[in-house]
Amino acid sequence: MAQIRVLRRMASLLTTPLAPEDFLGLVNPLASKRQLRGVVTRVVPETADSATISFHPGRAWNAHEAGQWARIGVEIDGVRHWRSYSLSAPAGHDPAITVTAIGAVSTALVRETKVGDVLFLAPPQGDFVLPEHPRPLLMLTAGSGLTPVMSMIRTLVPRRPDADVVLVHSARSREEALFHDELLELSDQFPGLRVVHWFTRVEGGRRLDLTDPTDLDAICPDWGERAAYACGPSDFLDAASALWDSTDSEAAASGHLTIERFAPVLLPGTGGQGGLVTFEKSDKEVEVDGDVPLLDAGEECGVVMPSGCRMGICRSCLTPLIAGKVRDLRTGEVHGDEGELIQTCVNAAAGPVHLDI
Ligand SMILES: Cc1cc2nc3c(=O)[nH]c(=O)nc-3n(C[C@H](O)[C@H](O)[C@H](O)COP(=O)(O)OP(=O)(O)OC[C@H]3O[C@@H](n4cnc5c(N)ncnc54)[C@H](O)[C@@H]3O)c2cc1C
Ligand code: FES
Question: Which of the four, 140, 174, 305, 307, has the lowest number of CB atoms within 10 Å?
């Protein structure tokens, strides 16, 4: 250790103003203390549009709990973009993300990631995690919303002979259903897991209707007594949430629904008049409508905006306001004092706005 300290001191003298960590980071990307990184160890295609990317993270990574997510930074054309991804690997294992290609960053991850690539990381977070005490569970998922639940199932089912999990997963077809074969194998192997696939785009298929309890009653009659977890598109989650809120049966009242969203809940019709947004340090400006988040406005005109979850939870996007008013797209509230830190992912211009970036 003493030798390493001496070497670090010598390196420090030779490399100032850059810290030795910066150079160590060039040799071993996982050694950097300034920016947590991970090296891709495996890429497995899951469906035509999705892939699981496993990585070995640097030492500053905290082991994830099943169901948590992490911010992942990807460099595209020299610009680092941050997005959030649920960790699909079981707890106690190196992390993995399962990404579905829908936009620029996810498509780059799915189509271009190779073993040995370096991902930028932030530590895992989130409270969409398994309950402390085992109890009957109902997992309701659709599309890529299966990813956090897959981590829970992989963690719980093989380890707990007393597990009692019903998974209802909606996908367009068998070919588009994530982890389809693995789930069937797990349910064959472990009697505590029942898997119901609900395909919407096959002959005779239709969407799982959560606007009333009929479908759930047929699939899982004791659904209301189970601790329920749901993850999927916004309309699917809104319907599930309304169903749990509206149900007045005694049994259903004893269950509890925990939801994970991949996109923010915006108040419909919140956007009012927009305005000219000026990014002072970047010397850029753009005229935007009142429903465009400032984060999107900045990225559209080439400003490197800090970001993370893009849904108002991680606060990575905080940017100082120099002048003007902004509108919170979740509540409609118009606010803005000079120097206020603005969450650019969920606020839009309400008139001319100047940001210190
Ligand atoms: C907590 C959290 C966990 C997430 N976990 C995953 C995951 O495990 N796998 C995964 O593929 N994505 C996940 N996402 C979504 C991911 O962060 C990106 O939003 C997504 O990959 C799109 O990024 P993009 O740059 O490709 O497209 P963008 O251009 O940034 O987004 C395109 C649009 O798609 C919307 N969108 C985001 N996710 C979805 C979705 N699943 N289906 C339909 N529309 C969507 C965005 O809100 C946006 O309006 C998660 C998001 C959050 C906040
Ligand atoms: S990007 Fe996470 S709060 Fe804005």
Answer: 174
